[in-house]
Hints:
Order of helices and strands: EHEEHHEH
Largest sheet: 4 strands, antiparallel
Strand order of the largest sheet: 2-3-1-4
CATH topology: Alpha-Beta Plaits
Helix content: 25-40%
Number of strands: 4
Structural class: alpha+beta
Oligomer: single chain
Distance between the termini: 13 Å
Mean pLDDT: 94
Strand content: 25-35%
Radius of gyration: 14 Å
Amino acid sequence: MIILLVQVHVNAGAEAAFKTATEENATASRQEPGVTQFDLVQQQDDATRFVIIEAYRDAQAVLDHKTTQHYLHWRDTVASLIAEPRVGVTYRSVSPPDADWLARGGR
Length: 107
């Protein structure tokens, strides 16, 4: 399992457009065979800050995701909405075990 937390800070006033574009990407991403989770959360005390929670079966699934049309469209769409470069940090699961993540993905 590869788990990515991607922190995104958008320009004030761009929150709705970012959420719309990201939800479209997330919905399509959840259909990819290598994706077990793809969620968007928004910071409660600063509406311009988001985290995208992505979980993949393996490194190949991450590479495959970055070549999809929906990801490329999202990347290009949100480029002008983002206030500063995205920050992604890669994690490995400690608990639950990888098998539980994979079971949640239903694939």
